[in-house]
Structures are given as structure tokens and as C-alpha cells.
Design goal:
This protein is mainly β. The chain is built from one helix and 33 strands. The two termini are 19 Å apart.
Length: 388
């Protein structure tokens, strides 16, 4: 259970971003809480409130959902919207003047951590893709950064125990590697080189943290997509070596999204050619292939997987049978028409969805019925870049 963030820090952080935060009147950052409202599978629905409303109500929520948007069209400013220990709220600018954070992961302070322990967000700086920015969620700002040298990293994942960051990328000379970073000491642990012409670009940890699965494409010129084959490989975290074998994903395409089943026995991968693959990690074979999907969200129970498609559609699949159960459509003003971005809250009750279109709103849906719970508007000069 995560400790509650100090209200003073929240107000200060929200005020810092008030000029560029999405809100109804574009002058005040919205704060959403769980105050009196309808129940959705045991979690109260969001209710809009102003900063000066009852602060105590903001401490009732516990929805570990971090949402990152880019205000690239508004002087390049960036910000984060979180729903941790108090409902969604706008936080500090990340790095004014730059489009930062193509990848972000958030770790809460552990229950046995001492008072004041950091709850950190780690950002891969997209202005160079070779540094990590460490943001203290309590203080609401940058506390450190780690220069990773000349290698350009494309993806980053945080181990389930929140101690290790895994980054994958390529160097100027075409060599490629996986980099392990101690998330707490903010220091590089090890670099794992890949064979020549093997280009990693996506990574996810297994639920037990013993292995990380990495999407690679085979071909020359690191970082320039020219694949003859796309595969998933396994990095053993104990030995820090690549395990023998891999699973091929047919087609000359990159992996767009990668997610692990809670059991650790399945991986879900979508590709830029809109294929959805079910991968059996015990045999490293493709067990199912479906067509027409992009971003993924896996229900915490492991029973369902949600896949976004174009034109504001979310497909819900039964994991056991790979059968489509239902399709959610989130229509309406301010939704946008681009590919769908997805994020489930920790209970699996609320599904957040949006697109990258300028002005696209963030829509919160009941993950069981697809009913709209709430809508967080964005200004016309703002757009979401990812949900984490």
C-alpha cells in the first residue's frame, strides 16, 4: 500500500503546471477524486473538484495509474497526470522546452520503507534517449539524472520488485545492448550485448522478475528498421545472459506493444502491422494470432486482454480461448480518431483510453461494461503521447 502524498506538494505541483494543464476553462488544472459517487466494481467513480474543496476526500483513493501527456504543440511543455493516492491530478512540468519522456515507469515507496522514502517516476528523456530522469513524486520535481553515454535507448521497463530498470537500444556504431540500472542507487549494474544485427526495441519483465522478454528485429544498421525477422528473446536476470532460443513473429514489422500475463505463462505482443500474438513462454511458441490491433492492456486477473484499434474501438478477448467477447466504442466530442492508447488501473475496474490526436480527451471506462465513467478534457494544443 502506497503512502499518501503530502497535499502541499500536490498543490504546489499542480500550480506549477496550471498554465498548460488540460481543464475546462484552460486556466486551472483539474483535480479528480473519489468523493461521493457511483461504485464501479468496488471502486468509486471519479468526481471533479477544485483545489480548494475538501482535502480529506483526496486521501480516500488508491488508483496507481500514471498518465503522461506531451504539450508539444504548446511551446514544447510537458507534464504528467497521475492518479496515485488521491485521484488523477496534474503535476509539475517535466522539462519545459523539450518533448521528454517517451517512456516512463513509476514505483511507489514500499510499505517497509522509512517515512519520507521516495516514490519515484523514471523518465527516458526523448530529447536524446540516453539519460534517465529521476522524479520524486512527493517533492514533485527532478531530483537526479543519469547519463547513459552514447547509446540511444528505445524502451525501458521496471522490475516487479522496483529495484532494477532495464533499457534496450543501440549505439552509433550499430552495436546493440540491454542495460541494467539500479533504480534506487541510480547506477549502471551491467550491460548485456546483443549479437551483431540483432536490434532490441521493446522490453517487459515476467511477473516474477526472473526473466525479461525483449522484442528484437534482425537486420543491419542498428536503429534503422530493416528487418528480415522479428523475434522475442528472453534475458535471464540471474545470469544476465540471453537464454537459448526465441520465438519468431512473422512479417517484416516491429513490435508495437508487449505485455505479460500475470501467470507468466503468456506474453501478448502487437506489431506495427496490427497483429496480436499470444506467445506461450513455456515453449516459446505462438499459440494465437489475431489481426487488426495495436496497444494492449492485460486484466490483473489474467482472464481478459484489451486491444485497441483505430477509430476509437477497444476489443476485449478471453485469454483462455482467444475469443472476442465484446467491443467498446468511445465516441463523442474531443476523443480523436487516431490509434487507441490504453491503461488499466491496478484493480482492473477502470480502463483509461485516448488517442494521440491534438485535443483528444482521456476517457475512463468501466472495464466490464465499457460504460463511460468520466472524461478528462484536453486543450486543442495538447496531445497524449503515452499512458503508463
Amino acid at each position: 500500500m502506497r503512502r499518501r502524498t503530502a497535499w502541499a506538494a500536490v498543490v504546489a505541483a499542480a500550480a506549477a503546471l496550471s498554465a498548460c494543464a488540460p481543464s475546462a476553462d484552460n486556466t486551472r488544472p483539474p483535480i479528480y477524486d473519489y468523493g461521493p459517487g457511483h461504485e464501479i466494481r468496488g471502486i468509486k467513480g471519479f468526481e471533479k473538484s477544485e483545489q480548494e474543496k475538501d482535502v480529506a476526500r483526496l486521501n480516500k483513493a488508491s488508483l496507481p495509474l500514471t498518465l503522461l501527456w506531451s504539450l508539444a504543440l504548446a511551446e514544447g511543455r510537458n507534464g504528467m497526470l497521475t492518479a496515485e493516492d488521491g485521484g488523477p491530478r496534474v503535476r509539475y512540468p517535466v522539462n519545459p522546452g523539450k518533448v521528454t519522456a517517451t517512456v516512463a515507469v513509476t514505483a511507489g515507496a514500499a510499505e517497509d520503507d522509512p517515512p519520507g522514502a521516495e516514490s519515484m517516476t523514471y523518465l527516458l528523456d526523448s530529447s536524446t534517449n540516453n539519460s534517465i530522469r529521476f522524479l520524486d513524486d512527493r517533492a514533485g520535481g527532478l531530483v537526479d539524472s543519469l547519463d547513459l553515454g552514447a547509446t540511444t535507448f528505445l524502451d525501458m521497463a521496471l522490475s516487479p520488485d522496483q529495484t532494477t530498470l532495464l533499457l534496450v537500444g543501440y549505439a552509433a556504431d550499430g552495436s546493440t545492448e540491454a542495460l541494467l540500472v539500479d533504480a534506487r542507487k541510480r547506477a549502471v549494474l551491467a550491460a548485456v550485448p546483443f549479437p551483431a544485427e540483432v536490434n532490441p526495441h521493446k522490453a517487459v519483465f515476467a511477473p516474477d522478475g526472473g526473466v525479461a522478454y525483449i522484442a528484437v528485429w534482425d537486420g543491419p544498421k542498428g536503429g534503422q528498421f530493416n528487418a528480415s525477422e522479428t523475434r522475442l528473446v528472453a534475458l535471464d536476470m540471474a545470469t544476465r545472459t540471453l537464454r537459448p532460443g526465441s520465438v519468431s513473429l512473422p512479417g517484416n514489422t516491429q513490435v508495437d506493444d508487449l505485455a505479460a500475463h500475470p501467470s507468466g505463462e503468456l506474453l501478448f505482443a502487437t506489431t506495427a502491422s496490427f497483429q496480436l500474438y499470444f506467445v506461450d513462454t513455456r515453449t516459446m511458441t505462438v499459440s494465437q494470432k489475431l489481426t487488426g490491433f495495436g496497444r494492449l492492456a492485460v486484466h490483473p486477473t489474467g482472464e481478459k486482454v484489451y486491444a485497441g484499434s483505430g477509430v476509437r474501438r477497444i476489443w476485449v478477448f478471453d485469454v483462455a480461448t482467444a475469443a472476442m467477447e465484446k467491443v467498446f466504442a468511445f465516441e463523442g466530442e474531443g476523443v480523436g480518431d487516431g490509434d487507441v492508447l490504453l491503461k488499466l488501473d491496478s484493480s482492473g475496474a477502470v480502463l483509461a483510453a485516448t488517442t494521440r490526436d491534438p485535443g483528444a480527451a482521456l476517457v475512463l471506462l468501466d472495464s466490464e461494461t465499457g460504460d463511460r465513467v468520466d472524461t478528462l478534457p484536453s486543450a486543442d494544443d495538447q496531445h497524449w503521447i503515452e499512458l503508463y
